[in-house]
Specification:
Radius of gyration: 29 Å
CATH topology of one domain: SH3 type barrels
Strand content: 25-35%
Number of helices: 4
Largest sheet: 5 strands, antiparallel
Shape: elongated
Order of helices and strands: HEHEEHEEHEE
Number of strands: 7
Strand order of the largest sheet: 4-3-2-1-5
Length: 128
């Protein structure tokens, strides 16, 4: 997980932390750092939750805090959505267009042989 988030350092991410915020709503935070057991996050929502936004000057309303992975329900990253959308679109394109060098065969044709209603050969009957 940490290698996936590394490209998001100093960028805004959405984080759901039910034990901290009291609900499962994702909040916008800035990913400050990644440690083996959690994330350093900064944001106004963190300051509001610890009631520091009302008591500090405007330029100090952002709080930086460490949150262990065990307290984080999920993290949403903008690039995640872009790559998922691109891979889904590519999969749809592959489904819609036949592969190069292949063609759809009529339902009665398999492996280059036309199906005919011939009785089986004498030696090809199966035992029951």
């Amino acid at each position: 997980m940490t290698s996936t988030l590394a490209h998001c350092l100093k960028k805004s991410i959405l984080v759901s932390m039910p034990s901290f915020f009291g609900d499962e709503q994702p909040r916008a935070c800035t990913l400050i750092d990644i440690e083996p057991f959690g994330l350093w996050l900064a944001g106004e929502d963190l300051a509001k939750r610890v009631h520091l936004a009302d008591t500090r000057p405007v330029w100090l309303t952002t709080v930086t805090a460490f949150f262990p992975f065990s307290q984080i329900a999920y993290v949403l990253v903008n690039t995640q959505f872009a790559s998922l959308a691109q891979s889904a679109a590519a999969a749809d394109d592959r489904k819609d267009s036949p592969r190069e060098g292949t063609r759809e065969k009529p339902s009665g044709e398999r492996h280059g042989h036309k199906s005919e209603n011939k009785p089986p050969h004498k030696g090809s009957q199966t035992k029951r």
